[in-house]
Amino acid sequence: QVQLVESGGGLVQVGGSLRLSCAASGLTFGSYCMGWYRQAPGTERKLVADIGSGGITYYVDSVKGRFTISRDNAKNTVYLQMNSVKPEDTAVYYCAARERRTVVPSYWGQGTQVTVSS
Q: Alpha carbon of 31 to those of 14, 28, 100, 103, 104: distances in Å?
């Protein structure tokens, strides 16, 4: 059974930092592309950052230069370092695992709330 378990969410002030972690089990972690998505109230879930099995990264424009996605294949864990956070970063953040050459993730975590206070 595949499990993706996020941690590290919470309340952070504008301009502060937060690191999210996602521990994966039940899958061949190194073979999957891993992504972080977020969903604010009343909006659709959207991709924030993605890292391929080879380490190639992708970021949406709104987080470029502020967020960093990384992975540790030995620990089956993907991270999202969030710096210089803004109120618009407030959302539930989800970890997802996507098979190579596919667009839609196969597996999702339960989500972790990030709230940026001004």
A: 36, 6, 7, 15, 15
Q: What are the pLDDT digits (tens) for 1-13?
A: 999 999 999 999 9
Assign 3-class secondary structure to 56-108. Answer: CEEECHHHCCCEEEEEECCCCEEEEEECCCCHHHCEEEEEEEEECCCCCCCEE
pLDDT tens track for 58-102: 999 999 999 999 999 999 999 999 999 999 999 999 999 999 888
Burial of residue 27 (number of CB atoms within 10 Å: 0-12, 13-18, 19+)? middle
